[in-house]
Amino acid sequence: MQKHPIHWPQFYTATILEWKFLLHNDLFKNIIIQSLKYLVDNKKIRLYAYVIMSNHIHLIWQALPENDPLKIKHSFMIYTAQHMKMELIKNNQRFVQEFKVDKKNRVYQFWKRNAMSFELFSEKILLQKMNYIHNNPVQAGMCKYPEDYKYSSASFYHDGTDPFGIVSCW
Q: For residues 46 and 61, is the Cβ–Cβ distance under 8 A?
């Protein structure tokens, strides 16, 4: 019988190209939520913490056995970029042009290349990163308390609220 590798939780940060405020609009935040929900519901990942800011995201997620973390990241980035592009083409032709690139393999680019990702080998570092994630909206002046920000897992750890049904308790 073949054993499946256990993957460590990862801290993952992805940034919108040129730090543009594409994610300021909740429509685009919801695209990210839909993708995360798909990954959770289809047992690809466990999501421990997240925040979706105006131009970047932070996640702590863990690929479940039988799932390749690199393939998960790749499909997440492609899915979200494709859906963002479709929404912009449909609703904001002017803004979509800001994401046009002169590349052989694509016409548009929404995410900066080489998103940052590293494994969290200790609980101390994981909790430190989780605290950083949850305080990001407070530091940006978007809310007074971390649990008040809708697009974050902070409320889950504060009072058990998980409006999107995607967070697993660390």
A: yes
107 located within any domain: yes
Strands (E), 7-160: 10-15, 45-52, 56-63, 116-119
Neighbours of 76 (CB within 10 A): 24
Distances (CA, A) of 88 to 71, 77, 108: 26, 16, 11
Task: Look up the pTM and report it.
Answer: 0.94
How far apart (Å, rounded) are the C-alpha atoms in residues 34 and 14? Answer: 16
Residue 5 inside a domain? The answer is no
Say if 70 falls within a structural domain.
yes
Residue 78 lies in a domain: yes
Number of domains in the chain: 1
Give the domain CATH number at 93.
3.30.70.1290
Report yes or no: 80 and 86 within 8 Å, Cβ to Cβ.
no
> In which domain, by residue range, is 150 found?
10-159
Q: Which amino acid is at 135?
A: N
pLDDT tens digits, one per residue of 45-63: 999 999 999 999 999 999 9
Amino acid at 120: L
Contact assessment for residue 49 and residue 167, using Cβ atoms and an 8 Å cutoff: yes
